[in-house]
Specification:
- This protein has 17 helices and 13 strands.
- By secondary structure, the protein is an alpha/beta fold.
- It has 2 domains: 220 residues, Response regulator (Rossmann fold); 198 residues, Rossmann fold (3-Layer(aba) Sandwich), CATH 3.40.50.2000.
- A 7-stranded mixed β-sheet has the order 3-2-1-4-5-6-7, with helices on both faces.
- α1 packs parallel to α14, α7 packs across α8 and α16 packs antiparallel against α17.
- β2 and β3 form a beta hairpin.
Length: 484
């Protein structure tokens, strides 16, 4: 494995290159940080290293008591009603960019988008998963200052076909700081082949809770029916991996009209689609892992894995994300099996493992060639038999493994850090003319309202009036009158 000195030199040379062409220097960025998303934790230091002044809004999910029981909802900086708080925040901070990921922190009606539009502040929602797994009712299609960064270019094409403007591709990347001191961690398990990843089964239960937030408690017979539908959908996705789960649900609803209203619901379809992907991806990972005949295999992840891996495979449980680089480095081969939602790109492990000094074999995706040079910087398999051959080949060739790791790591630190991705993000905005407008504090845009913005502004007018911002509500009301 590479020396610590090599790791640090690689990171520092990469960081110096970032600052040479850095459009983020001096920008004020408002970042929604969700406690459940590690990638957002990686984006924050990249913003600060790039010379940005960052105002962090802490997003949490909590249970809120209602007359009918309880529901889960986002809070921002501890506030359940946070739209007026957010408005005051951007009035005071005056950001050049608002950044959130996977819609976390976005209110159910998309009014946060409307605030950014009225204040002429570019807002980017960076989807780190399939955007169609999130209720699209929160996503206006053609606001001037709202853009969508999508981790996989396949969804960029789909969103544009569906009428969304301001959509561009922005793959995942790495935070090199996570792997600076991995040699300082000792007494971690070593193995021949290591797979690190969640089963997804716990995620499914979480998504079910999200569905019940919008629909109420599911009777047992409804949950059984949904589970049956999910199993059928998972089989469909395994048989047709290039198809979307939404396609299955639409066909299912058409063939079973008694369930059409439920499965076609704008809140429910995205969530059940994500459950189908989790379940199909679990079956894919389970079957591939259990098919490997190499004897020294370990799986690290959530508890459901324990009862689904074959005898002879070690279960390591959850590994701390802060120290996982040591496990990557200690394994002879790290195995990556992507979820079905990844169509043309790579997941986080493709960047993390080589940065930590680990050797990776991953499943092939059509867009990998744009990120890495095959067999020189990354090794891909095309089917279980191909994986088996490559495991046995590279187990016996430490020199080849080391050369590939070093080449991959060099490429990642030069081109695939989150600092680089943020530069690409700002570049995409500038290319399309999306830059902060000249709106004075206490005022809103002087531009004429598009038809799509008017309903949002009407809701904001009422909302702000009810929540103590009468002056701002009056400003919104006058804007509505002007555009009538």
């Amino acid at each position: 494995m590479m020396l610590m000195k090599e790791r640090n030199e690689g990171r520092l040379s990469s960081a110096s290159k970032v600052t040479e062409t850095n459009p983020l220097q001096g920008m004020r960025v408002c970042l929604f940080r969700w406690e459940g998303n590690k990638i957002v934790e990686d984006i924050l230091p990249a913003l600060r290293d790039s010379g940005c002044e960052v105002s962090v809004l802490e997003v949490r999910v909590q249970s809120i008591q209602t007359p009918g029981g309880s529901k889960t909802a986002f809070t921002v900086d501890g506030r359940g009603e946070y739209l007026t708080y957010f408005y005051r925040k951007i009035e005071a901070f005056d950001p050049d960019l608002i950044l959130l990921c996977n819609s976390h922190g976005l209110d159910p009606h998309g009014l946060l988008y409307a605030i950014a539009e009225l204040k002429e502040v570019p807002l980017v929602n960076w989807f780190l998963d399939n955007p169609y797994f999130f209720p699209m009712m929160r996503h206006p299609r053609s606001f001037r200052f709202i853009s969508y960064a999508v981790f996989d270019s396949a969804y960029v094409e789909q969103m544009r076909k569906d009428g969304y403007k301001g959509v561009f591709s922005l793959p995942l990347a790495v935070n090199p700081y996570r792997f600076e001191n991995i040699n300082a961690v000792v007494d971690k398990p070593e193995c021949g082949v290591l797979f690190v990843g969640r089963s997804g089964l716990n995620n499914i239960q979480s998504v079910f809770r999200d569905i019940e937030t919008g629909t109420g408690k599911m009777p047992d017979w409804v949950r059984r029916k949904v589970n049956e539908t999910v199993e059928e959908g998972a089989s469909f996705l395994q048989a047709y991996p290039d198809k979307a789960p939404q396609l299955f649900l639409k066909d299912y609803a058409a063939q079973n009209p008694q369930y059409a209203d439920f499965y076609n619901h704008q809140h429910i379809m995205p969530l059940i689609s994500s459950i189908i992907d989790f379940k199909a991806s679990f079956y894919l990972r389970r079957d591939i892992i259990n098919s490997i005949d190499y004897v020294d295999i370990a799986v690290a992840g959530d508890e459901p894995w324990r009862e689904h891996i074959r005898a002879g495979i070690r279960f390591l449980g959850r590994l701390p994300y802060q120290t996982i680089g040591t496990n990557y480095s200690n394994a002879v081969i790290n195995l990556n099996i992507s979820r079905y939602q990844l169509r043309t790109t790579m997941n986080q492990r493709a960047f993390d493992v080589p940065t930590a000094g680990g050797f990776l074999i991953t499943d092939y995706r059509p867009g990998v060639d744009e990120l890495f040079e095959l067999d020189k910087e990354i090794v891909c398999y095309h089917n279980p038999d191909d994986l088996q051959k490559k495991i046995h080949y590279y187990i016996e060739r430490p020199v080849e493994r080391s050369a590939i790791v070093q080449c991959a790591r060099k490429r990642i630190l030069q081109e695939h850090t989150y600092a680089r991705r943020l530069i690409q993000l700002v570049g995409n905005l500038r290319k399309t003319g999306v830059v902060k407008g000249k709106v004075e504090r206490g005022a809103i845009t002087k531009h004429n309202l598009g038809d799509e913005l008017r309903p949002y502004l009407l809701k904001l007018t009422d909302w702000f009036q009810k929540n103590g911002l009468a002056h701002e509500s009056a400003i919104f009301g006058r804007k509505l009158e002007e555009s009538s």
